[in-house]
Amino acid sequence: MGQCEAIIGLVLDKKSTDAIKRINEKKKYGNALSAMLSAGVFSNIFTRSNSIQAAYNISQTDWALYAQAMKSVPAITKRAIEKEVELMILDYQMQSNIKLLAFWKGIYEGCK
Amino acid sequence: MKAVNKFLLLLSVAFSSASISGENGDERIESIEYVYQKVVILAADLEKSIEHCSLIRRNSKPPLISTIKLEYLGANRRSVAQALVYLSNRNFEKCEGKYRVELAYQLGVLKSLGNFYEVELPPIDSIKRVLIYPTSRDIEAEIIFDKLPKEAKEYISSAVGGEPFDLLKTISTNNILEK
Questions:
Q1: Helix count (H) and strand count (E) of chain B?
Q2: Can you tell me the distance from the alpha carbon of B142 to that of B82, in angstroms, rounded to the nearest whole number?
Q3: Among the four residues A47, A84, B73, B151, which has the most C-beta atoms within 10 Å?
Q4: Confidence check: pLDDT of B168 > 60
């Protein structure tokens, strides 16, 4: 597993925040489907700050932990999340938003 | 499969906590467990199918697409990108086979039985909405594809073929979003 670059000062816009909520929902119901009771690392990245407007610093450790957590996510859930993330990447490519694009690419590629 | 067996156990506990007695109770358990077993098998089959299709996609070469030709045929770059989203989903689901649709159906049957017998079940509607059905964005992409000029649709469909392909690599390789 390779390493993604750390992202400093990532500010999530509404589109990304909404996408993250949808992805968390997919994980929640993925867990219901497979009876796995795991919160996962994904949500942990975004619970360190109480403010939605705060900038996030995502370290290489965060990426590694995320990739590890995603390994245990069932394929049905992973496929649903993957489709969501692909759309986010396309959207930010069209908007040329470099930090958000790097963030979603990191999520998609699992730091390969 | 271990995770699915745990779910079966949880479901059994949920059933045993309901007031089930006599012949009707046995029929209730038998009916729900019968359909539930179908759900378990279909979910496992869909899992394997998705993994298989993901492998095909990972090993595939991005199809070559001429944006110049598509623009000539009346399709702008953003529409082409959305058309590729639709075709990527279409090809992947075709690869998955019947399992997704059958799982959706059996989950619906399970819910219907649960309602009929007044047995509490997991959040089946949410599971289907979030994990099984296409999203609103998927449908929007399909509409954009459908509205493309006929020749553009035929060209791009032919270019990507029927197998799963990597959507983002295809867009990048063909410079779809670059002006």
A1: 9, 0
A2: 8
A3: A84
A4: yes
B4 contacts chain A (CB < 8 A):
yes
Residue closest to A73 by CA, chosen among B86, B137, B68, B131: B131
Among chain A residues, the shortest Cα distance to B166 is held by A86
The Cα–Cα gap between B43 and B38 comes to 8
* B11 Cα to chain A: minimum distance (Å): 10
Its pTM stands at 0.81
Query: Is some CB atom of chain B closer than 8 A to the CB atom of A40?
Result: no
Q: Which residues pair with A10 in a beta bridge?
A: A56
Residues of B in contact with A78 (CB under 8 A): 50
**Residue from B130, B168, B170, B173 to probe the interface with A (highest A Cβ count within 10 Å):** B130
User: Which tokens belong to B29?
Assistant: 């358990």
CA dist list (Å): B51 to A60, B47, B48: 27, 6, 5
| Residues of A whose CB is below 8 A from B48 | 75
> Are B138 and A83 an interchain contact pair (Cβ–Cβ within 8 Å)?
yes
Q: In Å, how far is B163's CA from the nearest CA of chain A?
A: 16
Is residue B10 within 8 angstroms of chain A, CB to CB? yes
A83 and chain B in contact, CB less than 8 A: yes
Match 């949880």 to its residue by tokens.
B10
d(CA A40, CA A19): 17
The closest alpha carbon to B29, from B43, B41, B11, belongs to B11
Helix (H) or strand (E) segment spanning residue A10 = strand A7-11
Q: Cα–Cα distance between B59 and B166 in angstroms, integer?
A: 9
CA-closest candidate to residue A30, choices B7, B113, B51: B7
Amino acid in the structure at residue B70: L
> How confident is residue A41, by pLDDT bands cut at 50, 70 and 90?
very low
